[in-house]
Write a structure and sequence with these properties.
Immunoglobulin-like, Gmad2_Ig-like_dom, about 35% strand, signal, alpha+beta, six-stranded mixed beta sheet, Gmad2 immunoglobulin-like domain-containing protein
Length: about 300
């Protein structure tokens, strides 16, 4: 398994998902937090740009610290459309006043995303508890409703399980297996997926979108310039990007170079100068390079609507 880099950098995430997580699970555990900003906070050249998770693997947020009551950023994985079909995109969200694993699981199952292009495929409901031991993360089911896939197609059920696995592992920063308990004993399945040996993360290229923007977050306010970053597996590590105005016109474009490609997703980062642009709403677009020149399924892309001041 690949080493797990530290996820904390400059990415922003809104409090909406955190508020919902707290509403679902208030009082279910202690909080292990790191300070992070909220979407809508000015960034770019501003000296007060907040600190939050960077565009790395997203699986090394440290745990075990006492609660401070300050917001903590966690990576949540959601489903979005790509040329390869539905894949997982990562979005950071803030939580406070509740155990991070509990909040992470609630974020996945509630599907309260900041980016409207993302969604969850989980059926309605929530876990009874989510706990961590030295060798596993254990999710406990409230009833037998999630033992089988129900109305989910097999592919949807497998992707839902991977949503949970990637999110919980990312929250603790360890590739621990996910065990499932029901009625005081291990459950053999979760959403119809075999859980008897513990649920593990599938290879990144099988389940993750091939490009993901983690900064700027949806709704970020920028001024002067901003750093865009994320992860990608793109041909020859090239990640083309564009900035479009409200009419869809491309007003800036360029490319970033990721740290690698082909075998997994790698971090990429670029600085975008917005000096001279009229204040207003813009869409930042990052995509994979398309060596087929349109002959294949087309590039994967991720978009974030931001505000330039």
């Amino acid at each position: 398994m690949n080493p797990l880099p530290h996820p904390f950098g400059r990415t922003l995430a809104a409090l909406g998902g955190a508020v919902l997580a707290l509403g679902l699970l208030a009082g279910c555990g202690n909080d292990d937090t790191k300070t992070a900003g909220a979407a809508g906070t000015p960034t770019g050249d501003a000296s007060t740009a907040p600190t939050s998770p960077a565009a790395s693997d997203g699986v090394s947020a440290p745990t075990g610290e006492p609660s401070t009551g300050t917001p903590s950023a966690i990576p949540a994985y959601y489903v979005g459309k790509t040329p390869q079909g539905d894949r997982l995109f990562r979005e950071f969200t803030q939580v406070s006043g509740v155990d991070k694993l509990v909040a992470a699981a609630a974020a996945v199952t509630s599907g309260s995303t900041v980016d409207p292009d993302y969604r969850t495929v989980w059926p309605q409901g929530r876990f009874a508890s989510v706990t961590q031991s030295a060798d596993a993360i254990t999710v406990t089911l409230k009833d037998d409703g999630w033992l089988q896939a129900g109305s989910l197609k097999p592919a949807e059920a497998r992707l839902a399980v991977q949503q949970l696995v990637y999110t919980l592992q990312g929250t603790i920063g360890k590739r621990l297996p996910i065990k499932v308990d029901y009625a005081g004993k291990p459950a053999a399945t979760l959403l119809g997926v075999d859980a008897s040996a513990g649920l593990k993360a599938a290879p990144e290229l099988d389940v993750l979108a091939l490009v993901n923007v983690t900064e700027p977050a949806q709704g970020t306010v920028v001024s002067g310039s901003f750093t865009a970053e994320g992860r990608a597996s793109s041909f020859e590590a090239t990640v083309p990007w564009e900035l479009r105005d409200a009419s869809g016109k491309v007003v800036k474009k360029g490319f970033a170079t990721a740290e690698g490609w082909a075998d997994k997703l790698y971090p990429w980062s670029t600085k975008v100068d917005v000096k001279g642009l009229a204040p207003g709403s813009y869409t930042f677009v990052a995509r994979t390079d398309d060596p087929s020149d349109g002959e294949g399924a087309g590039p994967t892309q991720d978009t974030k609507v931001i505000t330039v001041t």
